[in-house]
């Protein structure tokens, strides 16, 4: 017996499925109760609901399918489908009209709205002001509806209508369904507004026009070329949510309407002067969120302070008494960062000295500028930044930014010291008779680096007077140090570079090391016949 045992339903399905598969029908993977058969004569679809079968297809295939089913199973042909699962199906001259007028009347009567005055729209006009939006979430001191108000039952009834034949109430119903856990009187009024709209539009439904071609279904074609996409222009239908509503409107007689939430994802290439942060907005990482906050603050002249940051969360606020606040954290299931709390209102005045215009920001923003003009003046940079962003970092920040940019382009000095041995090897390869020597102290710590090219040495010995000048100067670099140098006079009484060295400091030991190597290269033993000039005679 079909209704006698718990397993009867499955046994019936297995039996029916076996016969249909033998006949060449294919079981749909998404909906196992739908069987499809295609042939040169056309296509036929059998939709199974318990022991009721709906057959859709071309005339030839239907005429073949019905006798086959009657031969395999004891069944009655009820003719063309007029009523199925609450759906009323009417055949009109130019297509098929599906509606739920009877179901709508029962729903209105069930919720005592069958005598209500009708409305012309499914929901009230809303405002972008979150505080005045009637569909905002439940507030702290607001009373939640009790169990005597059938809020979720109403949502369920409306959802069935929206999903089947009333796409015009789809958005309003789904919006109110988001507050199932804590509905308020405001949300219940929204439900009643939909009921009033249905009261005036009971006979509306979905019209599927006749196809111009013989085929009922095109292969894997639900959304075709005539499809249009519609989306709210501000990117966020909800004033309290960044998720916009995205829908398909069909003109290909399918009579299908679908919508889907669409997350607002941050675009690094956007115009940060008009960037609006919203709840739920997605970012690839915490660093990307921090960068977006910083760029927005610079464009708008706001002084934002980061209260706490880590790999999984970031919290920022505007200084002084400005109410602006933002908190974002990692969404584990997505691997992205979302804004969880936000107060988006700024009450502060624009500050051209905003603290977010840091030296690192200057370096990143104007990296290509420093590549092309490494000697650009700080005053010129101030003018450029003021013209573009309306802020004016201090000259010290600009100096630091330039240094960091050049460090990015050329590498850091610390990295360069690590390459000294390779540099010496290259110098020795091109100048085998030159003298290139490192001075290291215990622990392989850098003390000095001597550079003496053989061409300079031989040119001095063969064509210059025996006069050598010595001097040292400080290096204006991040790591400091001094430059020790030796120069001579050529035949035209011009300065002749002889040798030089970079050392950690100017002291007796470093000078002794430098002079020892130089004298060895010039073969100076006792100094007789030589003149040495220095500012360190004392």
TrEMBL record:
Bias class Polar residues marks the residues at 233-242
Spell out the residue ranges making up region: Disordered.
228-253
Reverse transcriptase Ty1/copia-type domain location is 1-124
One Pfam family it belongs to: RVT_2
Q: What are the residue boundaries of the Transposase MuDR plant domain, all occurrences included? A: 276-330
Q: Could you tell me which PANTHER family the record lists for this protein?
A: MUTATOR TRANSPOSASE MUDRA PROTEIN (PTHR31973:SF187), POLYPROTEIN, PUTATIVE-RELATED (PTHR31973)
Q: What protein am I looking at?
A: Uncharacterized mitochondrial protein AtMg00810
Protein species of origin: Striga hermonthica
């Amino acid at each position: 017996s079909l209704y006698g045992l718990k397993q009867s339903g499955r046994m019936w399905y297995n039996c029916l499925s076996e016969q249909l598969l033998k006949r060449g029908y294919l079981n749909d993977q998404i909906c196992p109760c739908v069987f499809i058969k295609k042939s040169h004569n056309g296509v036929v679809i059998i939709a199974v609901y318990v022991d009721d079968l709906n057959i859709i297809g071309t005339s030839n295939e239907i005429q073949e399918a019905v006798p086959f089913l009657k031969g395999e199973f004891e069944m009655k042909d009820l003719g063309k489908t007029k009523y199925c699962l609450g759906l009323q199906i009417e055949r009109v001259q130019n297509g098929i009209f599906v509606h739920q007028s009877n179901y709508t009347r029962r729903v209105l009567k069930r919720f005592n709205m069958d005598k209500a005055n009708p409305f012309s729209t499914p929901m009230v006009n809303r405002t972008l002001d979150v505080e005045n939006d009637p569909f905002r979430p439940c507030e702290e001191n607001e009373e939640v509806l009790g169990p005597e108000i059938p809020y979720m039952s109403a949502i369920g009834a409306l959802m069935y209508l929206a999903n089947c034949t009333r796409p015009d109430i789809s958005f309003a119903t789904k919006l109110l369904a988001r507050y199932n856990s804590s509905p308020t009187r405001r949300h219940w009024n929204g439900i009643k507004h939909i009921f009033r709209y249905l009261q005036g539009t009971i006979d509306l439904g979905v019209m599927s026009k006749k196809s111009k071609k013989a085929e009922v279904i095109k292969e894997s074609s639900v959304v075709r070329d005539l499809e249009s996409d519609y989306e709210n222009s501000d990117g966020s239908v909800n004033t309290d949510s960044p998720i916009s509503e995205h829908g398909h409107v069909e003109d290909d007689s399918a009579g299908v309407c679908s919508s889907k939430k669409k997350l607002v994802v941050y675009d690094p290439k956007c115009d940060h002067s008009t960037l609006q942060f919203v709840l739920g907005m997605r970012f690839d990482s915490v660093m990307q969120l921090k960068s977006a906050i910083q760029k927005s603050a610079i464009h708008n002249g706001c002084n934002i302070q980061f209260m706490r940051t880590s790999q999984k969360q970031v919290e920022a606020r505007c200084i002084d008494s400005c109410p602006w606040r933002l908190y974002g954290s990692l969404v584990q299931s997505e691997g992205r960062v979302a804004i969880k709390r936000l107060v988006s209102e700024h009450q502060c005045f624009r500050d051209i000295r905003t603290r977010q215009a840091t030296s690192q920001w200057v370096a990143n923003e104007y990296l290509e500028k420093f590549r092309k003009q490494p000697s650009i003046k700080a005053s010129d940079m101030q003018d450029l930044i003021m013209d573009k962003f309306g802020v004016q970092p201090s000259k010290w920040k600009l100096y630091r930014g330039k240094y960091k940019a050049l460090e990015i382009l050329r590498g850091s000095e610390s990295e360069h010291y690590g390459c000294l041995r390779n540099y010496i090897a290259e110098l020795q390869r091109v100048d085998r008779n030159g003298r290139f020597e490192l001075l290291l102290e215990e622990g392989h710590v850098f003390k000095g680096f001597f550079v003496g090219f053989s061409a300079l040495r031989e040119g001095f010995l063969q064509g210059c007077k025996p006069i050598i000048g010595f001097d040292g100067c400080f290096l204006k670099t991040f790591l400091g140090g001094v430059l020790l140098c030796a120069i001579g006079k050529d035949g035209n009484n011009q300065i002749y570079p002889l040798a030089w060295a970079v050392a950690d400091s100017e002291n007796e030991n470093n000078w002794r090391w430098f002079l020892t190597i130089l004298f060895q290269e010039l073969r100076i033993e006792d100094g007789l016949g030589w003149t040495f000039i220095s500012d360190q005679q004392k």
